């Protein structure tokens, strides 16, 4: 297992400004995840307008979530190097512009590039750095803080379906995307709330310096000055002899620079994490699970429409997903924070949530009763809110505090691979048979 360099709990005050960061993460989850869950309404409009099959059109919405997670290793690495706020701001602008440009699209593949690929890439620059920044303010109550912030998914899922349905009826899909781009611009608020934590200063007793001690310190300063002067002379001699380098020596220097470049890339993305067996098994498992995750949000609305339920009822049922998420995220987060047995066995807790999520999907195919479907949607939102918020907690448990940001980025990357594979396959299966 990766060596865990534990952070001192007294370095940063628990909570503090972190609660404002929870608000910023809430806003981000509301806009990004809440809208992604509800984009199935656009899916129906795109199929009807462009006349393309479900498999081809599904790439548009699949790329949003896929790229949002595929960009995670790069976004977390850039956040560690240049700062979380800068990267989140860049992602906010990219998503806003790409959604705005989507309103002028006349082709499915152009829409897949703008609304899917570029918009998802912008979300990717926002999501992982914004979520991982909470670790600097919370340790004991991280599960609770994430649970509260991730209720933004539920509030968004509750708000977006009727709102998008109203926009589509009033302005069409182009006008709806224009308004959606204006909402996406509010991600800049989340970026503004991100700031580095200020560590507590440890008060240490002032050392009283004796005259002898002062003399020794002055002597050390003289030695340092002499050593720096010698280094300067050596550097000048080295620069004078630089012009006389042989081709063999020059090729060796080139190879050294290439080696240093790839070494920096490995350090930049922290590839050593992939050598940890426990973390690698977790990544592969999460990737397989994610193959079915995007299928639910993408095909839930078309599946309900196939049963013969009206558009207004579809929007209402999708809103129930948000209600389940609003309750599930904080409740399951509070259990993980305050129940010691659960906190010590977070692996089994997380696995149980995933099992319950998969079980509800299987049960969903067994009935066409609207009340049964509504119950399924509520339970699905409840469990998904739990595992979405607890993923980074589990990553932190596996790789340690120092590697949490990068480890979470790799987790989202592997999840995006599963989602990229699962969604188009589901579209083809529907075209060849049905949702059952």
List keywords for this structure.
single chain; mainly alpha; 17 helices; disordered N terminus
Question: TL;DR of this structure?
Answer:
With 436 residues, the chain is mainly alpha-helical.
Describe this structure in words.
- 47% of the residues are buried.
- It is globular and about 75 Å long.
- With 436 residues, the chain is an all-alpha fold.
- The two termini are 42 Å apart.
- It has helices at residues 18-38, 40-50, 54-70, 72-82, 84-102, 108-132, 142-149, 151-184, 187-192, 211-240, 247-269, 277-307, 311-338, 340-344, 346-364, 370-399, 404-432.
- Helices cover 80% and strands 0% of the residues.
Major sheet details: none
Ranges where pLDDT stays below 50 over 5 or more residues in a row are 1-10, 201-223, 225-242
Strands, total number: 0
- Strand residues, percent: under 5%
Alpha-beta classification: mainly alpha
Number of helices: 17
Compute the gyration radius: what is it? 26 Å
How do the helices and strands follow one another from N- to C-terminus?
A: HHHHHHHHHHHHHHHHH
Gross morphology is globular
How far apart are the first and last residues' alpha carbons, in Å?
A: 42 Å
| Helix fraction bin | over 70%
Instruction: Write down the overall mean pLDDT.
Output: 76
